[in-house]
Each structure stands twice: as structure tokens, then as C-alpha cells.
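Two folds, back to back.
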Amino acid sequence: MTTSNAAGPGPAVLDELTRLRDSIDNIDAAVVHMLAERFKCTQQVGRLKAEHRLPPADPGREARQIARLRALAESAKLDPAFAEKFLTFIIAEVIRHHERIADDAGNGTA
């Protein structure tokens, strides 16, 4: 059972909450920037694949990446199932981009 403080949390609690939320905001910004960099690289991969008529998806690589990320998650004390879901979502988006790049290359719009 939790108890409530009729006066609300004290200034020290509010300061700590603000500090933690500021850290979360900074981490979120870093994640967005890292994802942007990752997608810049995967766009280059997509163009290279399209140029050489390689398939947009590489199931073997994807499976190795998922296994690698699950192991990294475990060592970082992050739920490996969550890490896998996250990477699977990213991979699906990358494949979608690669398909679009290949379509554009096939149509002469790349």
C-alpha cells in the first residue's frame, strides 16, 4: 500500500525527478541521432544493392544481427525480447526503404 503526502512531494524529490527526466530527454535525443546515422548507412546499402540487383532483404544477416543484439541486450541487462522487437521493427523499415530504392532504380527515378 502506498501512502500519499497531502502536501505533495518535497523540492528534493521534484529536483531529482527533473534531473532524471532531463537525462531521459538527452538519451532520447541521442537515440534519434544514432538512428538517423544508421539509416544514412542503410540507404547507402540499399543503393548498392539496387545497383547490383541484390535482394532488399538478407535473412541470414538479419538473423545474425538479431542474435548479436539479443546477446548485447543480455549483457546490458536489457530484455532481449524487447531488443529483438526493436531491431525487427528497424529491419522491416530498412527493407521497405531498400524495396523503394530498388523500385526507383528499376523505373529510372533513382
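---
second:
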Amino acid sequence: MHPNGTHETALTVDDGLASPTTTAVGGNQLFIANAGFNAPHDAKLQSGTINLAALARRH
């Protein structure tokens, strides 16, 4: 989600996100719990860094 309220998809099944169950944000870090219900059945915690400056420029 961008600061102006618009949003876009950041991760898909091609990125290994098959069954997202919850998200959390801490500072500029994003964490997504992936339950692995769907193939490839790979439960894991994915994380990434949020670049707020880049988000603000895009919209």
C-alpha cells in the first residue's frame, strides 16, 4: 500500500507465496507468514525491506 492509499501486488506464487496467513510491519521491515497450504507446501516466514522513498515517488 502506498502512502496515498493505492496498492499493488508485491509477491505472488512465483515468489514462493502460496498461502499467506498474516503480515507484520516493524519499522521498514515487512514480514509475511506463509502457511504452505497450497503447492509447493513450503511453510516459511518471508521478509523484505520497505523503501518508503521509492513508494512515495511512484504514486
